Amino acid sequence: MSLLVVGLSHRSAPVSVLERAALSADAQIKLLQDTVAAEPAGEAAVLATCNRIELYADVDKFHAGVAELSTLLAQHSGVGLEELTPYLYVHYEDRAVHHLFSVACGLDSMVVGEGQILGQIKDSLARAQELHTAGKLLNDLFQQALRVGKRAHSETGIDRAGQSLVTFGLEQLAVGTPVTDWAAGKKALIIGAGSMSSLAAATLARAGVAEVVVANRTFERAERLAEILTESDENEVTARAVRMDAVATELTRADVVVSCTGATGLVLTAEAVAHAVEGRTGAPVADTGATAAQPEAAQPGTPVRSSGIGADENCPLDLAAVQPGFSLMGEAAVAGMDAATLEQHAAWVAGGTVDRRERRTPEADAELITALAATAATVGRIPERRRPEPVAERPAPFFFLLDLAMPRDIDAAVHRLAGVRLVDIESLAEASADAPMAADVDQVRRIVSDEVAAFGAAQRAAHITPTVVALRTMAADVVASEIARLDGRLPDLDERQRGEIRQAVHRVVDKLLHAPTVRVKQLAAEPGGAGYADALRTLFDLDPETVAAVSRAGDSTDTKDRPA
Q1: Residue 212 above 80 pLDDT?
Q2: d(CA 358, CA 106)
Q3: How would DSSP label each residue in 448-489?
């Protein structure tokens, strides 16, 4: 069996794909169960975060394993295999180990060096253990990944290279101003009471906000988080809990909103945010959508991105069929259009975003429509791209929203509202791409390389251990048989003499086996050393079933500790 990982992350896929492929807790459980039920896989674990979805498995066939794991990911994510495949990456054996260790150290995070991923790896292992889908390999792998991640954070300054996603998001909201200065005296609304929301609440409290209001579907969890904030010695914030139906009212009081829930649909629509702004200002909120980008021409088969602008007037869509909460010009609206409707939609986009005095030529419209149609035929959808408005054309923001959920909690159309600043996973990905990396990252990379080599050596050495144990067991049986035969042939020997003979024979056997077994373990731990176990079995004519029985006994007595 061999380690295989198939997945996608913010490095391989656009946020729109990650958002649609996000796995609910129930979907993760079903994915694990179906993976171990599949023929190529013996163990499975899922690592699903806001910016990655990875399926780890112990497989007996590489190509069959890749095909099966890819199919299962597509099936449970709801994104078609043909669409998902271009964004998938595959790591095998040592490369898979290297990838997970890098992830655990924060090297593969959207914000390099963030430590929150360790908790997510811990949860992933715990889930696989509870479902009994993690065997010896994945238990060893994930436990070691946690140790490697902790080592990286304790032995290097990787923490200085990045922050948690929450801290980074708040810095983006503050736009160059120190978070403590920006947050001082503000009122914050936290939607959700999970680990990310709790971290956001604690961070804002330490930063100096005057009040934190927690809203959650389960009111008791919101109350508990509010109590923790109130009782903390690290801040003097006022905290209280509200039910989800009070969010609309609290929006009109809040200066900062952080949302991170497990909802499959939008928690805050653009209309709800606009009403909240109007409730604060007493005047209708302006839509600054006129600065959005035009769709770009593309070659057939290349994803084309449509703008997120336009009024409902003359929209060719059946508005009643559009999912509530999504921008009419967003990808959810255009996904699945037939060619004729797509052409109408493309023409409407062009007409709605270009000044009528500078309307596109028929030739340009034809090129646009052709490109859009080719893209829809190839990938089945048109992702939406947002281009930030020039700061000079927008009033200074006074209402700040941070969306850390995947799929998103807050309608992306909110970014068009005057006086509102929205930071979400997509904008964080764009901002982090230019973030400087600390020199400590190189040291962490060396740690990862050393740990990968050590893990591989340990796994290869462990692979030969059952064979060595079986060899020593066979030798002990031979000694016992010969001693019994000697007892029958020399019945006059006293017990002291029998003991001396027995010890002498054991010492001879141990000395003969010591050097070969120690050396074979050393050789097996080196790359390419897997064949030494087969050589031992052949040379000493060991029964394969005996070796297998030793392996099963080792697995059954192996303690599968919960992640530390």
Answers
A1: yes
A2: 48
A3: HHHHHHHHHHHHHHHHHHHHHHHHHHHHHHHHHHHHHHHHHH
Report the distance separating Cα 170 and Cα 402, nearest Å.
7
* pLDDT tens digits for range 133-151: 999 999 999 999 999 999 9
> 432 near 11, Cβ under 8 Å?
no
Catalytic residue among 50, 105, 260, 315: 50
Give CA–CA dist 505/480, Å, rounded. 10
Rounded Cα gap, residues 216 and 198, in angstroms: 11
Q: Which residue shows structure tokens 């700040």? A: 400
User: Which is more confident, 327 or 192?
Assistant: 192
Tokens at residue 493, please?
């020997």
d(CA 332, CA 345): 13
Indicate the helix (H) or strand (E) that contains 398: none
SS (H, E, C) 15-60: HHHHHHHCCCHHHHHHHHHHHHHCCCEEEEEEEEECCEEEEEEEEC
> Comparing C-alpha atoms, which of 94, 42, 95, 129 is closest to residue 551?
42
Listed in order, strand segments (DSSP E) in 217-365 are: 238-243, 256-259
* pLDDT for 351 beyond 70: no
Quick one: 423 exposed, middle or buried, by C-beta within 10 A (0-12, 13-18, 19+)? Answer: buried
315 catalytic residue (yes or no)? no
Contacts of 187 (CB under 8 A, 6+ apart): 209, 210, 211, 213, 253, 254, 255, 256
Q: What is the pLDDT of residue 493?
A: 82
3-state secondary structure 425-443: HHHHHHHHCCCCCCCHHHH
Q: pTM of the predicted model, to two decimals? A: 0.59
Between CA 162 and CA 113 the distance in angstroms is 5
